[in-house]
Protein 1
Amino acid sequence: MGRLRQMALLLEAENTRLHRRLVELTRQLAEARGEDRAQLELELQRLTEQLATRNRSLFGDRSERRGGKEKDRSAPHDPQRGHGPREQATLPIVEVTHTLDPADQMCPQCGGDLQPWGGQTEDSEEIDVVERSFRIVRHRRQKSRCECGCIDTALGPPKLMPGGRYSVDFAVAVAVGKYVDHLPLARQVRQMKRQGWWSTRRRCGTS
């Protein structure tokens, strides 16, 4: 689902960009032809409505794409409850249990052995980050043969282009970074280098 959502966001961003470009070209063409400005505005309004209808048919209402989290502005707001940490209901929880070191398992009062108190812990939370990593997936396509001499090979994973070196997930991540998060490719390459990936492509005149 996460990958499909990323692709939907990417397509929506690309549709918006193409619509803006179409509006700009339509305005320039109308001005070059000397057409009536009122007629031009009607045409642009029609294009905008068509894009909105197409987006709704593809992605649904904006509130639905956000999980229905948009609140009615006319509804009364909940009272403020201070400035404490917000709940992070969507983040996975990893529990780590800390135990006393062997040197600390002796009671400081009587010198006896400290035993674990079943079910009793002092809990706290912190938000951690898991850095993105890259890997090489080696696909082994099994070959099968028949006694008649026929040989068949299993299909491999889907590719954006035949013989492509990068997976579909890799391409989606790069496209979302560029069109949704507005990260230029050069900046993404620098980030990937820090995370262990090095591009094999070399510029002309470099060794």
Protein 2
Amino acid sequence: MIRNLKLTLAYDGTDFSGWQVQPDVPTIQGTLASAIGRVTGESVLPQGSGRTDAGVHALGQVVTFTTASPIPAENLVKALNDVLPDAIRVLDATEVSADFHARTSARAKTYRYRIFRERICPPSLTRYVWHFPYPLDEEAIQRGAAVIRGDHDFTSFAAVDPERGRKAGENSNVRTIFSSVSERCGEEFVYTVRGNGFLHHMVRNLVGTFVLVGKGSLRVEDIARILEARDRSAAGATAPARGLWLVNVEYETSGA
């Protein structure tokens, strides 16, 4: 009997060359596929809700794969964690319907970007935040973040390979942003964004642009102009990967 299984993963992306399997380098997808093979004896390529880049982390990446293995889903959590490196943990495993797919069934994702604002960044955090101790008008960034809520063409904030961030059937760079909030959390300034989808490097390019607003190089009003330009060169530089976290992925139903 073939079953469709859904895994929820957390991982530290620092030592991996992103999600997608590549020859001769460690990736999240490749490492997970190897672990599934060791546990079930099958050759599978698990499909994620999206491709995180090298150095990007996840608290709730969702993965699906099919298997003929009779191992109960709840037992797979321990079995996989026993063979996976400590940097990747399976948090949950459930059986879902055959038509459920981690990527195409997703309805919303939440990303978080962490900026450490103090003069010295503790070694325990340096892999997980962008250390930016320089002056920033955080209130201006908060106002700038609010501008992108709603439906917009995010071409200005997409990497040069926009096709990479599209779901099957999509033919534009228009995305809906449900919430976009920057706030001070102790020693960190944290940007959290929830939307129906994201283009390649979109969140990191937004953060790089918001920082320019905070530095005074751009005005809050310039965010709307950059969106309308639909030109990557109009926006700011790409923020470092290490500060970005995929927080969770939402679905209308569990697919069960």
Protein 3
Amino acid sequence: MNHFYLKSIRSGLPVGLVLFVAGCSANSSVNNQEPEAESTAATIVYGESPSESSKEKMLAAKDALFTKLSGRLMEAMKSQGPGAAIAVCQKEAPAIAKAVSEEQGLQIGRTGVRLRNPGNVAPAWAEELVRDKIDTPTFVMLDNGHAAALLPIKLQAQCLMCHGPKKQIAPVIQEQLSKLYPGDQATGFKEGELRGWFWIDLPNS
């Protein structure tokens, strides 16, 4: 069970919402923007590893994103249901991610094994790791001096409501997904399967 999930459970949030938010923030629309040019051009320096403080800062940024997004999603879930929460993922989550990036002094985004949003491509430094479907937290140094992380997300049971086999997805959710993500490829996953990753780029580590 990953650090992100454990911290969320300890916060007292309902389990179903915790897992829904994890799926949304990692796999739907945390950040629609492409990585900045400096990050896009960077490559991994093999044999070097970020400091422990840099790793902690990157994990803290992921937790901060969850805290902000979960509050907004809880409001939408309670008032209008999961269809409305999907709309929040699509329309509001990018701004929330941008705010967290600015507050934390880094870049945070996500990519997937199969993309829901075609804009959610991995930065260049992470492309090979994504192709290899790395399924453990990976911390690296880049040739521009930045620290970076690729943090895998495994599909939890409750995430199947948006990412499972299409025949198991409720009609109201299918309707929203078709409306907001017409090119969606992010269904057909099984519980426990690797769904995607958070990527984080931390300057001046």
Protein 4
Amino acid sequence: MMTSVSEQLKVDLTVNGKIYCRVTEARRTLADFLREDLGFTGTHLGCEHGVCGSCTVLIDGELARSCLTLAAQARGASIRTVEGFAGDSGLHPVQRAFKQHHALQCGYCTPGLLVTAVALLERCSDPSEAQVRQWLSGNICRCTGYQFIVDAVLSAAAEINDRHAPRS
């Protein structure tokens, strides 16, 4: 059955641990749904072609370009945006490291880079510089030259590993 362009669909999903249910157009992107319908403006829109990585979010733990994903495709999914990383105790170690290592300038690419870095560190707690560069290769930054970003991710990994290291 074909879906009409203007058809309205019910979209229920979980964002950063909270359940949301909205009715939206069948063609609405997840990026627009997150930003305009739910107020998660940390998800940035850059190229809107899935190339720059600014709109990167985690859908059921997997990296995804929210500008290429329809909100209806994410029904029932658990989504994490950059707003979901800071906790009661403050900034996530990756966010803190970005600040400490001057890994952002204009900040437009930063949410996608943060999401990607967190996903990397959740899968590989002690990445090499080459692994960090490979993971971040899908995120374009026009301001920093990447070295400070790589340094920040490696610093965050060290902090996370130190926090989990057994104490004698």
